[in-house]
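Render this sequence as a predicted structure.
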Amino acid sequence: MKPAAFDYLAPRTVAEALDALAAGAQVLAGGQSLLLEMHLQRVHPDLVADINRIPGLDALTVSDGTLTVGALVRHRAFASPGAVPGPLGDLFGRAVGYIAHPPIRTRGTMAGSLAWAHPASEWCALAVALDAVVELRSTRGTREVPAGEYFRGPFQTAREPDELLTAVRYPLLAPDTGVAFTEHRRTGFSFAQVAVGAALTTRDGVITEARIGLANCADRPLRAHAAERALVGAEVSSWAFAAAGETAAEQDAAPVPEPYADVDYRRQVIAVLVARTLREAVPV
């Protein structure tokens, strides 16, 4: 199928892009979601604003303990060792290999994933788990929304139609944090049936902090708060991780049936994957 007719605009400044959004434009960055939906004629924008010519939106910077990811930073940037310092860079490097396949990682953007808000998105789950902040700009001004409040449901966010997601900010993880990311899917090119990201801090064999992000375990990305609470203060052990996996599956997650996976199967996968990810995240 071919997309319906639309007008194309390539703004050269953020201000021009915001004016286009105020006029009802859809944003084109990587285009890996929008263009597919247009070809399938599930969305019919009258105006598409291509922001790829706006300078500065491809910046990836670290300052005062915060990583700022611009709207045009591609997935592949996080596959480069040292692109992001410390455990946060290690976690992003582990996650990015699960995102689709090389052509999509070359064009697609982290910010685009957060704007599209697919429940199976790896970046969305990590944003929630890591207390990321989403920067939204419009002709009315700029606001920042915590990732935990940003996602509202499948493909639904706090972003208003006239707002441009210009950056995502993450606090850097402490140097002694251990991280891991695992994913279960039917084929190498399928969306994740379940994906789990974890960051653990321990002291003298006791867990002092835990962060667990879940993808495709509900209608939006989740942070497994109940499982995290069960872990803090517990000794590092396979038993503790298995119990946290069960807690995540039963108390944190709200899976829905899929064509190849009913709810009971998906809860079992969540429990196993959370436990496995936590074992891999133990700091060495």
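Summary. The domain at 178-278 is CATH 3.30.390.50 (Enolase-like; domain 1). The mean pLDDT is 96.
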